[in-house]
Amino acid sequence: MAAGEGMTTIWPVSVKLGELHRGAVHRQLVADELALVRIAKGLDLVSLGALEAAITVKPWMDGASLSVRWRATVTQTCVVTLDPLTQDLQGNFTVRLLPRGSPALPEEGSEIDLDPDSEDPPDILESDQIDTGAYVIEHLALEIDPFPRTPGVEFQAPPAEEPPSPFAVLRRLKDPDPEG
Description:
alpha+beta; 180 residues; 17% helix; 33% strand; two-stranded antiparallel ribbon
């Protein structure tokens, strides 16, 4: 599944393939307040304080190469204390994209060499639009800690309750009101 499926309406910032005929396209994205609220809700965050991305889209084969440097400030709930926990996150990524039907795409049904050290195969574009905002959100989501914990806080399990001894159970049966 390509980035953007399901995320398109959260932060729709796109570049058309046709814009690349003159060369690389550079964009500086800054999420506005409405986008921050929508992205935070979509990623199940307490809040998203900032999200910025520097994007370069270059021609690549008959598609594009998307290079992004991003940073964000996220607030989550600590899984131990349940207090808000704010973290600064950042990342870089590159994605190659080809339009559906491109002769550069591997033939459907052909064998795929799974090498964890090789580059990812190109994403397939469903239209002439590259939803850059969706790619940024996808990579932000990959960096968010699924179990955030305030630094230095350790989970302390409650002491295990000892099962009552058989004699205590018998005593309660004999005398149901031990106080009286």
